Automatic annotation (TrEMBL):
InterPro entries, A to Z: HAMP_dom (IPR003660), HATPase_C_sf (IPR036890), HATPase_dom (IPR003594), His_kinase_dom (IPR005467), HisK_dim/P_dom (IPR003661), HisK_dim/P_sf (IPR036097), Sig_transdc_His_kin-like_C (IPR004358), TCS_sensor_his_kinase (IPR050428)
EC number: 2.7.13.3
Source organism per UniProt: Dyella japonica A8
Stretch forming the signal peptide: none
Protein's name in the database: histidine kinase
Pfam families with a match to the protein in the record: HAMP (PF00672), HATPase_c (PF02518)
GO cellular component: plasma membrane
């Protein structure tokens, strides 16, 4: 399970980004339409003004035309409305336009001046303008133009208004989205925290449900209903298995006792060997029943209330002392390497049981002349114990399954055992909230690492991580 949810992957963040993007796009489109309509309207008004001024000046008597043009130019010293009179040779006669615009057609229609016109009040800076020119009956050319920088200014105002509108909308929107996102994020973290014990096997826990009745509460309610049904079914299956194991132990024990008495009576007879074989098979069945009941006992989390400070190093020394003669009899080197460790809260007997099973399995599957190493060191958050052997190892595709009850891999089918050893280890690890990592040594052999602390969601260890591991009884070879 992931750790803290990514805020930018939340539904609220996605909605904010989507609606924000749509607002920006449609806001830009709206402002573009407004600016286009405004520009078109103002250009129409300017064109009408120019045509009216052209009609007025052109209707003046030819003898007074130059005076009228100069008077019109004098009225507008800033050159906002420019007027000029040119002779047949394009030489200026009157007005404030010093030369005839070459790109302006003399068809009596208003056109945009490509190169603009100079403004006297702006150090001859050229500004955008619209103008029209017409040829008078005497051959003179009359030109009237008007500065349209005002339209550009209005467009700039509209664009600034868009920027202000976006900023005044997006910033509060982002702030509001951040505040709105905090609530669901907090709920998600609460749901995630509630799922941790469920993920570790405690099906009695339920997801928190608030009084809001929103989508998260509806989902939590559905999951709680599902968990309740799963818990009921699991308890039924577990109860049946435990009852079978418990109820069959008594008749099997009686049967074993009777066979043992029969074996004593048949001492020296050929049938005694057959009876001995039957006793061995019954002992194997009883061992499996005891292991099943042991797993069920360890899955009862009430035992965690009796945890105390435990010296892991001392437990490892006891395990080494317990298995050293077994390894010696098998011709194996049994190495113990313990660095300074901090105490942990645990059940010392269960921790011994788990480590003893790991070491017992390592010795069991390591051939004669091989090596088993029991190492302990301080990791970033607590003690770490590695059990390393030079046996055949555990294939990568079986590492998820070896902690299941009765599972026996290809390498263990020819050896004795019930397939419950690592299930017991798993139950103990789950009870303590520890983690078991199953890997390899890089060449041959297996490496089983017990982390005596709860791993974080971002911790990457090995190839297979079992956060809930069962218990083990020391296994004899």
């Amino acid at each position: 399970m992931n750790g803290r949810p990514n805020s930018w992957h939340s539904t609220t963040s996605r909605l904010i980004l989507i609606y924000g993007s749509l607002f920006v796009v449609w806001g830009a489109v709206l402002v573009g339409v407004i600016q286009w309509e405004t520009t078109r309207y103002l250009n129409t008004v300017i064109d009408q003004m120019l045509q009216q001024r052209m009609h007025y000046i052109a209707s003046t008597e030819p003898s007074r035309l130059a005076t009228t043009v100069d008077a019109a130019a004098a009225i507008d010293p800033h050159g906002i409305m420019s007027v000029g009179l040119f002779d047949k040779d394009h030489q200026p006669v009157a007005g404030n336009i010093d030369h005839l615009p070459a790109s302006l057609l003399r068809d009596g229609q208003v056109h945009l001046l490509r190169h603009g016109l100079p403004r006297p009040d702006r150090d001859a800076e050229r500004v955008r303008a619209r103008g029209l020119a017409t040829t008078l009956p005497n051959g003179d050319i009359l030109v009237i133009a008007k500065d349209i920088s005002t339209i550009d200014g209005i467009g700039a105002i509209i664009r600034r208004a868009l920027l202000w509108g976006l900023s005044l909308t997006i910033i509060p929107g982002l702030l509001g989205g951040f505040l709105l996102r905090r609530g669901p994020e907090k709920r998600i973290r609460e749901l995630q925290a509630a799922t941790d014990p469920i993920r570790q096997g405690d099906l009695s826990k339920r997801l928190p449900v608030s009084r809001r009745g929103d989508e998260l509460d509806q989902l939590a309610g559905i999951v709680n209903t599902m968990l309740g049904e799963i818990e009921r079914l699991m308890n039924e299956v577990k109860g049946v298995c435990d009852n079978i194991a418990h109820d069959l132990r008594t008749p099997l024990t009686r049967l074993r006792a009777r066979l043992y008495r029969t074996q004593q009576q048949l001492d020296g007879e050929p049938e005694a060997a057959l009876v001995e074989s039957c006793i061995v098979d019954i002992d194997e069945v009883l061992t499996r029943f005891r292991a099943l009941l042991r797993v069920s006992e360890l899955e009862d989390r009430h035992r965690a209330a009796c945890f105390d400070e435990v010296d892991v190093g001392q437990v490892l020394r006891q395990v080494h002392e317990f298995y050293a003669p077994v390894a010696e009899d098998r011709g194996q080197a049994f190495e113990l390497d313990i660095q300074p460790l901090t105490p942990v809260r645990a059940d010392a007997h269960l921790l011994f049981e788990a480590l003893a099973n790991l070491v017992g399995n390592a010795i069991k599957f390591t051939p004669s002349g091989g090596k088993v190493s029991l190492r302990a060191s301080m990791d970033k958050r607590g003690p770490r114990v590695d059990v390393i052997d030079s046996g055949p190892g555990i294939p990568a595709d079986e590492r998820d399954a070896v902690t299941r009850r009765f599972y026996r891999g290809d390498n263990s089918r020819t050896t004795g055992g019930s397939g419950l050893g690592l299930s017991i280890v798993s139950a103990i690890v789950r009870l303590h909230g520890y983690a078991l990592d199953i890997g390899d040594t890089g060449s041959s052999g297996a490496r089983l690492t017990l982390y005596c602390y709860t791993l974080g969601p971002d911790d990457k260890v090995g190839t297979c991580l079992s956060r809930s591991v069962p218990e083990v009884t020391p296994m004899t070879v």
